[in-house]
Amino acid sequence: MKIGHDLKYSRNRPTPAWLYSPWFRYGFLAFFLAVFGNMLFQTWLVGAGASSLRQAVSLFWTFQLPWHWAYTETSVPAWVAQFSFGFYSIMLTSFLLGLILMALYKPRTWCAFCPMGTMTQAICKLKLRAFSQ
Q1: Which band of pLDDT confidence, cut at 50, 70 and 90, is reported for residue 108?
Q2: Neighbour count for residue 133 (Cβ, 10 Å)
Q3: What residues does 66 pair with on adjacent strands?
Q4: Which tens digit of pLDDT belongs to each residue from 35-70?
Q5: Structural contact between residues 79 and 46, judged by C-beta atoms closer than 8 angstroms
Q6: Domains in the chain: boundaries
Q7: Measured on CA atoms in the order 42, 43, 45, 50, is the torsion positive or negative?
Q8: Which of 96, 112, 99 minimizes the C-alpha distance to 62?
Q9: How far, in whole angstroms, is CA 33 from its chain's centroid?
C-alpha cells in the first residue's frame, strides 16, 4: 500500500473484470496448484535420489535464474534445498506479479486473484453452504 498510494507508483486504473472473474480465479488457482505440485514432486525426486539438486530459481515459471552463488553446501539435506529453491521461485514470482499489476492498475490488483484468497473464499463458501443446510 505504501508504494502504490503514498509513493504514487500505481496508475490507479480500474482492475479489468476478467482478472477477478471466477473462471480466471479458479483457473489461476489450478495452474498455481499444478506448479506447487510440480515443486513438491521435484523435491521428492531429489529426496529419493532420482534427481540431482537444481540450483536455480524459476521466474514467472519460465526463466531460470542461476542461484548457485547463493547456495553453499551445508548440513541441510539436498531435498530441503530443492524445496527452498522452488518455494523461493513461487514467492519471487508472486511478488513481481503484485508489483507489475500494482503499477498497471490499482495497488491491490494481485489480491483479486491471489491463490490463497481464492482458496479461502472457496472454503468460506463451502462452510457457509454446509451451515445453511
Answers
A1: confident
A2: 5
A3: 56
A4: 999 999 999 999 999 988 877 788 887 888 776 666
A5: yes
A6: 2-132
A7: positive
A8: 96
A9: 9
